[in-house]
Amino acid sequence: LLLLVALGTLVLGLVAHRLLAPAGNPFARPPPGPPQPLVTEPRAREKVLKRGFSAHRVPPELDAVVIGSGMGGLAAAGTLAKAGKRVLVLEQHDQAGGCCHTFQEQGSEFDVGIHYVGQMHEGSMLRVALDQLTDGQLCWQRLPDPYDEVCLGPRRYQLRAGKAAFAAALEEQFPAEKAAIREFMRLSKMASRHVALLAVLKMVPWWLAAFLVRTGLVYWISPVFRMAATSHSEAVARLTADRDLRALLSYLFYGTAPRDSSFLVNVLMVHHYQRGAWYPRGGGSEIAFHAVPLIERAGGAVLVRAPVTRILVSPAGTAVGVVVQKGPSEEEVEIFAPVVISDAGVFNTFGKLLPPPLRSHPGVRSRLAMVRHGMGSFLVFVGLRGSAAELALPATNFWIYPHNDLDAM
Hints:
3-stranded mixed sheet, FAD/NAD-bd_sf, 14 strands, flavoprotein, alpha/beta, FAD/NAD(P)-binding domain, about 40% helix, 4-stranded parallel sheet, 2 domains
């Protein structure tokens, strides 16, 4: 198994070397310069974020087409652009950015998806990646402590930034549960160090990956595989009988109840925020605003109001392009590229965009049957008259639950 891991790492290294050899490592150079002043003029921002689709705006000789301008799509397009590839990003909404876009209502600007991001300290891998994909133009403001407050009915608990401070705050609020808290922190640290081993299953032949999973041999490679296969509720129940602490170790809700979510994902979420939380200066739309020019400099484009209706597939079963149709009475526009990347989600991609024969293919149907939608939710955007200072509003996220049984909600 160790040989398997070594071989997988070697293969990945050879592939990366082969792909990057002609132009070198696209991330070797630091971003071009320090952050510039915020651009707040509406027309200047619209030229970047709201460039509408038309056939004559499609760049020639594309290297790739990306469906959707969410952070995944922009990251894929930006990475290819850094390697000198010409990429077209197609977005059906009237503004690029996906969950990173903002809207204005009655004089207030609201973020639709970004409320805070973890691991944005200087030198972190995530910070370096975002700096590379946005030309280093993002400034991140760290939230003061406590950055999170969890309300379980009438009881309130605070989360504090810093690996030592995070654990100390938990132990202070649950003095009888120090052993459980320290074990949870140990598992969180181990998960963050070993999670990359999950890529092993993607680097070996499918039959070998299936054999390792079905026989249970995969669990001998690393404990993270067992953590991934264990529900979060089951894991925290083994750690502690304190129901409030169980809820506090599960509070980072992302659309799936703890009983249905992976323990590995949850501990990685907690680890993600152990150093605290950050917010981008100027709001979430700044991410897309500075990612788009990088794509354009390589000859690509990010076009909105561009609904992709289907993916074009060759007789050999290879994706060769997409079709854009702005409305039922509008003419279809076929766009060809040797690489098609979908950031439209698994249900849209496999359930709507593929040609009907492929949608009904047993392999596609079996994969769709393995996933399901997360819980639905309502977002309420509230504008208040007055500044945060005038209203004495803390920069704290409040997670409010009616009780400590998160699985019963």
